[in-house]
């Protein structure tokens, strides 16, 4: 992965329907869409002095960026370029849902400068999409991914492990289907049901539909084996890519590069300080109107904690972290946590080679046991 300049994240908090498992800042429908994008444009303009080097990436996340009128995204992209500059080969990603991605919408996204699509597929089995209340069925997802690959080349798809009713075989079939469609990037997340009341109720009624931790780990290993065998090695705990197709934008979060976040609930990091925008639509718009920015929290980590956070994020990557950085973070821990970390290494969760420290395969599956010590 290359070292780039800063990135910009733009939150698009609109969705046609709320999925059962959603924990993002997202509203159903397009109410207030025009006023929201006006506020985002104003926020960008008023923060134009925050960085001096041109943007290396733009990421439209959500919510569902593909659901809004593409002209809205174009206005934001234009004001980002006008305010900060944009490198010539900038990566411009938009997240999209399969049922929005007809040829016309794909063309409009391409015309406004999007050159990478991240499609929320979640599963290629209809019976698994139903409890998630996704809008699309498996066929629509297959067609959307194929159309996007044809037009963009650089396409990522998301899948989930642990969907009610999913089996080892059905997940393998979803992975195979996507890998066979020509995607260059795959993200696979564990479904978190604790914050999804409908799924918690379903688990109470039909516990057999849900996988236990061991089964989830087996499925993750299946994904890893299938993706690697198809030429998409894993480069982060939840991400696989054909070499050269790693997400430049998301890599900024893992390597500690600056990212400016715009829009409701967006987060910014300038290399030292983390700032969070208001997560409430009305408050966000009011703060932008009154002050030009919408920060409601700001925290500069003390040096030891910043070092540890950097190492924690770096350990998510298959490339791991430089041994010197790891040692400095380790030395900043109190005695008890340092001994616990050494125990994890002795237990085989971490390995050292070539001057770097990495999570082992087992360490990746049990990464929270390492990360919790570095927090
Ligand atoms: S599409 Fe994504 S952001 Fe929108 S409701 Fe579903 S999970 Fe939430």
Can you walk me through this structure?
With about 375 residues, the chain is α/β, with parallel strands linked by helices. It folds into 2 domains: about 250 residues, Aldolase class I (TIM Barrel, Alpha-Beta Barrel); about 70 residues, Orthogonal Bundle (Arc Repressor Mutant, subunit A), CATH 1.10.10. Helix content is about 45%, strand content about 20%. It is built from 15 helices and 17 strands. The chain has a 9-stranded mixed beta sheet, with helices on both faces. A hairpin with a 3-residue loop joins strand 12 and strand 13. Helix 3 runs parallel beside helix 5. The radius of gyration is 21 Å and the shape is globular. The site of iron/sulfur cluster has 11 residues, from loops.
Can you lay out the helices and strands and say which pair or pack?
Elements: E1 7-12, E2 14-15, E3 27-28, H1 33-46, E4 55-62, H2 70-84, E5 86-96, H3 103-111, E6 116-122, H4 126-132, H5 138-152, E7 155-161, H6 168-179, E8 185-190, H7 197-205, H8 213-229, E9 234-236, E10 239-241, H9 248-255, E11 259-262, E12 267-269, E13 273-277, H10 281-291, E14 295-300, H11 303-315, E15 321-322, H12 323-331, H13 335-346, E16 350-353, E17 356-359, H14 361-365, H15 367-374
Parallel strand pairs: 1-4, 1-11, 2-3, 4-5, 5-6, 6-7, 7-8
Antiparallel strand pairs: 8-10, 9-10, 12-13, 13-14, 15-17, 16-17
Helix pairs in contact: 1-2, 1-10, 3-5, 6-8, 11-12, 13-15
The structure holds iron/sulfur cluster.
**Average pLDDT:** 96
Low-confidence stretches are none
CATH fold-type name of the largest domain: TIM Barrel
* Main sheet properties: 9 strands, mixed
CA(first)-CA(last) distance: 25 Å
Question: What is the strand tally?
Answer: 17
Total helical segments: 15
CATH class of the largest domain: Alpha Beta
């Amino acid at each position: 992965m290359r070292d780039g300049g800063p990135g910009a994240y733009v939150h698009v908090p609109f969705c046609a329907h709320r999925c059962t498992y959603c924990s993002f800042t997202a509203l159903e429908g397009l109410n207030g869409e025009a006023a929201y994008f006006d506020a985002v444009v104003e926020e960008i303009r008023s923060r134009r002095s925050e960085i001096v080097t041109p943007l290396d990436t733009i990421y439209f996340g959500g919510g569902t960026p593909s659901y809004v009128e593409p002209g809205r995204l174009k206005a934001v992209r234009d004001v980002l370029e006008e305010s900060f500059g944009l490198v010539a080969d900038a990566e411009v990603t938009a997240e999209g849902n399969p049922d929005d991605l007809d040829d016309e919408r794909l063309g409009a996204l391409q015309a406004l400068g999007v050159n990478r699509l991240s499609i929320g597929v979640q599963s290629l089995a209809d019976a698994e999409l139903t409890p998630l209340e996704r809008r699309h069925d498996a066929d629509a997802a297959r067609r959307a991914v194929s159309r996007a690959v044809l037009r963009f080349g650089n396409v990522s798809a998301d899948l989930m492990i642990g969907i009610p009713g999913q089996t080892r075989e059905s997940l393998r079939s979803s992975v195979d289907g996507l890998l066979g469609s020509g995607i260059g990037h795959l993200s696979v997340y564990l479904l978190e049901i604790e914050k999804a009341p409908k799924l918690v109720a379903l688990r109470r009624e039909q516990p057999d539909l849900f996988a236990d931790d061991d089964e989830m780990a087996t499925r993750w290993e299946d994904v890893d084996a299938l993706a690697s065998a198809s030429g998409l090695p894993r480069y982060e705990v939840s991400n696989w890519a054909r070499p050269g197709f790693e997400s430049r934008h998301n890599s900024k979060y893992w390597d500690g590069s600056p990212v400016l976040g715009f829009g409701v609930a967006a987060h910014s990091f300038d290399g030292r300080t983390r700032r969070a925008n208001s997560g409430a639509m009305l408050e966000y718009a009011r703060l932008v109107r009154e002050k030009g920015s919408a920060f409601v929290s700001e925290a500069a980590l003390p040096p030891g904690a910043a070092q540890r956070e950097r190492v924690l994020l770096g350990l998510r990557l298959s490339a791991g972290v430089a041994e010197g950085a790891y040692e400095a973070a380790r030395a900043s821990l109190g005695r008890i946590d340092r001994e616990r970390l050494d125990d994890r290494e002795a237990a085989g969760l971490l390995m050292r080679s070539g001057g770097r420290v990495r999570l082992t395969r087992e360490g990746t599956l049990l990464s929270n046991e390492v990360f919790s010590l570095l927090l």
